[in-house]
Amino acid sequence: MLTLVFLGEILHEAGLRGIVKILQDGERKLSAEVIVVNGNGISAGEGISLPDAKELFENGIDIIILGDKALSKPSSRRALQAGFPLLRPINFPANAPGQSAYKLKCSHGELWFLSVCIGSEKFPLGDPANAFDSWMEQETPECPVVLNVHGTDLPLKEALMLRYSDYKVPVHVLGTGIRVPTDDLRLLGGNVFVSDIGSVVAEGTIQGLAPQAWWKRYIERLSVVQVSAISRVKADGIKIVFDDTLRVVSADRLKIFSDVIGA
């Protein structure tokens, strides 16, 4: 058996501190051979720094996947160029730094990991469906594919799953970007689908920010620094169990809480 845990989007420093504590508790809270996380919102909600990426890898994360904030800051671009299994979406411009797909060797074979990002009027990107089609045609994968679809277009996420439901190898579509866990987790023809895994976020906050800080940042458009004490962090995730041939045996939601921490 192979167990994969895919955690939701880490939000802000408190989310990072919480997931590191959960990872350090390891066997008690998060026992899995492969652990993947979406790190799109760590660095003040925008991308990831190289020190933060290193800390996650040192504490047991195997792959970090980014979304629309992958290139928002120079620190994220530097992290992408450091040679770690840190992935940006495949439908970013071809000259974007870093890698967009990664084949992970596991105890029972290999798994492909990659992501696409759903763009918007403010953040236009290449068509995610066409980008994934092109990758599949070029790569013709011989092992299961885990696709992280980052964004808010739920029908597109489901359409990508259905399009490849009869492909020669399983294509598992796991969504992020809404930051709230959806109740549509299902297994269809050996393929796992959920439109949004959720997030790794401090309780009592709005997407990682204290309520007053969120109001100042998004309503009053003021620069804020998160200084509130944090009680504990909630981590949403999906746990997938594979048999020795990498066929899915089960897929279940996870909700894990860190112990009390400070921020």
Features:
single chain; 263 residues; alpha/beta; Purple Acid Phosphatase, chain A, domain 2; seven-stranded mixed beta sheet; globular
How would you summarize this macromolecular structure in one to three sentences?
The protein is α/β, with parallel strands linked by helices and 263 residues long. Helix content is 23%, strand content 31%.
Distance between the termini: 37 Å
Uncertain segments are: none
Molecular shape: globular
Largest sheet: 7 strands, mixed
What portion of residues belong to β-strands?
25-35%
Write down the domain tally.
Answer: 1
Number of strands: 13
The CATH class: Alpha Beta
- Mean pLDDT, to the nearest integer, reads 90
**Rg estimate, integer Å:** 17 Å
The name of the CATH topology is Purple Acid Phosphatase, chain A, domain 2
CATH superfamily: Metallo-dependent phosphatases
Q: Per CATH, which architecture? A: 4-Layer Sandwich
The H-and-E topology, N to C, reads as: EHEHEHEEEHEHEEEEHEE
**Helix amount:** 10-25%
Number of helices: 6
Q: Any chance you could write out the topology, listing elements then pairs?
A:
Layout: E1 2-11, H1 12-25, E2 34-41, H2 50-58, E3 63-65, H3 74-80, E4 86-87, E5 101-106, E6 109-117, H4 128-139, E7 145-150, H5 154-163, E8 171-176, E9 186-188, E10 191-194, E11 199-202, H6 211-218, E12 233-242, E13 248-257
Parallel strand pairs: 1-2, 1-11, 2-3, 3-4, 6-7, 7-8, 8-10
Antiparallel strand pairs: 1-12, 5-6, 9-10, 11-12, 12-13
